[in-house]
Every structure is written in C-alpha cells, then in structure tokens.
Amino acid sequence: MHLKVLALSGIDSTDLGQRVRLANVQLSRAELGRTFAGEAFDSFDGEHNLVSCDTYTSLWLSCSTFSDFKSILLPDGTGSVQGILTRDFFDSKYILKINNPTDIVFQDSRCDPFFEENFESNPLGLFEKEGWTNYAEAGSRFWEVFEDENSLGQSLEIGSFRSGDAASISWLISPKIDLQSLNNPRVAFRTSTSFADDSSLEALVSSDWDGQIQTIKSATWLPLLARIATEDDDAQIFVDSGDLNLNFYGNALYFAFKYVGSGKTAQDGTYELDDFRTFEK
Fold first, then answer.
1. For the chain (length 281 residues), average pLDDT per consecutive 10?
2. Which one of 63, 137, 245, 252 is at 20 to 30 Å from 216 when CA atoms are compared?
3. 271 and 154 inside one domain
C-alpha cells in the first residue's frame, strides 16, 4: 500500500482508508506512563491523543485491546507515526490505526507547550489547584474533575443538570500566564458537550484582572475566537479550539471559561474541557 506523508493538520476525507505517515508529532503529556491498550478504561481499542508539534491540533491514535503489545508502555519523544487513517464507529472523528509499536518512531525530544494543564494530577470532584479560580457567580455548580473513556483520562466538566438553580454562571480562570518571552504566542484547548441545549460556554481573556474574585465582573474580558463544541457536535467528542493568536491581548494574561445555564430543562447542558495550553508558533 502506498504511504502518504501528511501534516496532522492537513488531514481530510480524501485520505481515508490510506496508509499515512504523520511527521513532527508526539503523544500528549497526559498519555505518558500509559500502555497501548491495557488501561482500565480501554474497551475494544486503546485510544490516545496524538498532538502536532506545529499546530497542537490533535488526532486519536488507536490499537486493538487484542493486540499482543497492548500492555507495552507508550513511547515518549517526538517523531513520526504511520497507520491507516479511518473514522470511528459513529463517524464523528478521525482515527489513526496502528498494528505494531514500530509504527511509532520517536527520536527527538518533546515539543511540550510553554504552559499546559491536562487535569490528570487532580483528584476527582471539585477542581482545586493553586493559581486557578473556580467560582460560581450564580447558582451552585462549580467545575469538577471527571474521568471516562471519552476524555481518555481526566478532564473538567461543568453543567446545571438537576441543579434547581434559577441561573447558573460558573467561571474557571487560569493562573496569570506571562507570555513576554514568546515571539508568537498561541493558546489552544479542547471542549465537548453532553446535550448542551441552550446553555453556553465562552472562552475569554483578560490583561487587567487583579486575581480577586470580587473584581471578576468589573475586569475587561475579551472573547477568544475559538472553536467551542456546540449542541450540533456529537456528545462527549472533544473538538480542537484551533491555535489562537495572542499577540494583540498583552504579555501577561488570564484565560477564563464562563458557563451560563440554569436548572431548567432547556438550559441545563454540560460542557467538558481538556488540554489547555499556551505555546510558541
């Protein structure tokens, strides 16, 4: 079979069913220490987040739980991966299927982002981490750490389902990130929904917030033109935000994710967030 060499960000439907090689990629830092297909949440296939070092967009890497190498640890580093490009059972996402550990050739050092949070080191339940702000402006719901096979480990979620709240406004705000050492700073993350209904999630950025909860509403929060999962996307399938240019926002920034909903059936959706990162492009 002919081998087609591609950039991860250049994949499209014309490549389906072909054997492809993706260059300058690595497995997400959250995948380190895991096996090819031997984790407790692996069912039929082990799936892992493969990330482009050029754009930080991602693709699912897959191998069978019946493979004889399922219990081998995933490799570290950066390099190339080859396999068959396909789609998942629900035709909702691209998957690169490999048949042998030798399909992965990582010979270079990692290209990790300038700042990254994948929520893997936090206990399940209420998200609490130094530097991060988890605040309910209205209602009773806070961002929480959860784990399932769709998130492939731990992610955050927020939702007002069965809250009984007349209104839900929940903020998740990053630590202040100093980007002045980066010439071309970018931010990226992944989101998914579970029946979003008429609830909403915004990605925002501020250069003038002072870090105090009481001044969140009075600070200047500018919208990021990010791709955020919507009701039209398949439930619990993570989508990439795109790599968002930060050159016009300032050198030291806070990033916020603002959820708005209520306990009403039409507004009680859930959103998931994972793999927040800032990087140089």
1. 82 91 93 91 87 87 94 96 90 89 96 93 95 98 87 86 96 98 94 92 98 97 96 84 93 98 94 94 81
2. 245
3. yes
Q: What is the CATH classification number for the domain harbouring 73?
A: 2.40.50.140
d(C-alpha 195, C-alpha 197), whole Å: 6
Q: Six-digit token pair at 115?
A: 């700042």
3-state secondary structure the chain: CCEEEECHHHCCHHHCCCEEEEEEEEECHHHCCCECCCCCCCECEEEEEEEECCCCCEEEEEEECCCCCCCCECCCCEEEEEEEEEECCCCCCEEEECCCHHHEEEEECCCCCCEEECCCCCCCEECCCCCCEEEEEECCCCCEEEEECCCCEEEEEEECCCCCCCCEEEEEECCCEECCCCCCEEEEEEEEEECCCCCEEEEEEECCCCCCHHHCCCCCCEECCCCCCCCCCCCCCCEECCCEECCCCCCEEEEEEEEEECCCHHHCCEEEEEEEEEEEC
Give me the domain span that covers residue 167.
Answer: 115-280
pTM of the predicted protein model: 0.84
| Domain match, 85 and 14 both | yes
